[in-house]
Amino acid sequence: PSLTKAWQKTVKVAVTGASGQISNHLLFMLASGEVFGKNQPVALQLLGSDRSFGALEGVAMELEDSLYPLLREVSIGTDPYAVFKDADWALMIGAKPRGPGQERADLLDQNGRIF
User: Fold this and answer.
1) What is the rounded CA–CA span in Å between residue 7 and residue 90?
2) Less Cβ around it within 10 Å: N or C end of the chain?
3) Predicted confidence pLDDT, tens digits, the chain (115 residues)
4) Are 63 and 74 in contact (CB under 8 A)?
């Protein structure tokens, strides 16, 4: 009870590439209070693709099953307009890796279209 008195207004965090390996580690840090602090509740709004939606559902279930006291809500979707709506923070993670012989400028152009 004394801990909850110090909690602040919930921060809504939208995360792209949420079913990927990098996001997977970050999401649990966000939910545990390692990113915004031990008194900061969070709501995670996770963006995935049609191809990764099954994995995204699994990530959401895993987060919810972990019972983090600061995690207020986990929502998932494939529509960036819906996922980013009302977000306080946007963490844009995930991109296409550079292929053999590919120049960085080409990769930036392709990844720019992703975001």
Assistant:
1) 21
2) N
3) 565 666 689 999 999 989 888 888 899 999 999 999 999 999 999 999 898 899 999 999 999 999 999 999 999 999 999 999 999 999 988 766 677 887 877 777 776 766 6
4) yes
